[in-house]
Specification:
By secondary structure, this protein is mostly helical. The chain has 21 helices and 13 strands. A hairpin with a 3-residue loop joins β5 and β6.
Amino acid sequence: MEKEVRVRFAPSPTGGLHIGGVRTILYNYLFAKQNKGKFILRIEDTDQSRFVPGAPDEGVNYGGNYGPYRQSERKKIYRQYAEQLVAQGNAYYAFDTPVDLENKRNAIPNFQYNQATRMHMRNSMTIPHEAAEALVREGAPHVIRIKMPTYENVYFNDLIRGDVAFDTNQVDDKVLLKADGMPTYHLAVVVDDYLMKISHVFRGEEWLPSAPVHILLWKYLGWETDMPQWVHLPLILKPDGKGKLSKRDGERLGFPVFATEWIDPKTNEKAIGYQEIGFLPQALNNLLALLGWNDSTDQEIFSLEEMVDKFSLERVHKGGAKFDWDKAKWFNAEWLKKLSATELLPYVTPMLAEKNIRPDMQYLSTIVDLVKERCVLLPDFYEQSFFFFNAPQLYDMDALKNKWAAEKDLFFNDLISHFKQTENWEAPQIERVFKELASAKAIKIGELMLPFRVMLVGGKFGPQVFLIAQYIGKQETIDRIVKALGIVT
């Protein structure tokens, strides 16, 4: 029987969700759906010093047969396996205090707790067995470290990178269980992946150096035949390609690196996210999918369903992908054009409500369709449409007074009279009245269109000006001309 595809994403509840993490979620999801498998969300909250009360507990909310899904609720499970590794001789108790370790780091540049140094430290390999057991029973502070073998190579196959090998002499004795009894990522991720029957592990390539530790743990715990297949994804790089994209890069260059707003619990510093800046989820998914993958065609706009259909690990790149903010905004603009007004209303309506704009939904749908091609981010809908709901309070006076003359003053006063007599108040008829009057007064249309636009919207923006006049209505159009004439003259 073919093994069920089961993938997982396991974020910390205390840190911001980096777009690299969102891409990992997306690739997990696409692979699972394509293979009719399951996508599991697990919460890795083993670092108690980083825990923030009230952090989301999403795994519990989703339920499942392999819970609990928060690592902090699985503490006894991890201790059991850590002790098993000690009993087998694959791990050991280390009683070194933080001061001991700090002294070693000060004395030895680039100190590592490894094959070369472990026998000079205070652990269960350098003190008598009975003494070490007694210290553990008495509750003496200690950690459990993996005992990395000497002069061995650890091999594994990565579904993106092919065969990979690591020299164990280059890997230190990682802590598996901390002094507070909580596991580190290294032990917890292996135990959880085994017990939750994970078939494929998708993670960023920054985790490659940890792979030999994890593979040895699978072997030492007797689970080698159940080990998942490995998929180490390429990094999302800075725009110049020099290193992994970081929060600091976003602050420096003016774009988000987190999916949603995140407040640093230590500094209270706020980092805005893609959701808050006005990105559609469809656009963010589309952008991230193509930061490391393509379907070998020139297609750039993909729905989630198309991604599920076309995604393949064979087309995931080995090298990192440079982040391009202009391209990111292009994806959002394209999705704003692609979605219908009905699909956009749930995003636009609350945003306008914050500005005390609560129009009829049918009218708003019309306006959304009219302006969406001029928008790049969701907040642009307000900038591109506010004048459909309220008269402008500010005017581009340079544009309004530029080359203003008495003949234009007369034109717009006469235009008010003509508009009052216009019964068919639709854009083609409004345009006809406007142009016929301009022709009768021998004034070039181009000299009148910009002032007319500024009178209606306040500046040099917005869709076709006669459509604006149609939708705000005859009386409102006349009132705005009257108001503007009072300002300009």
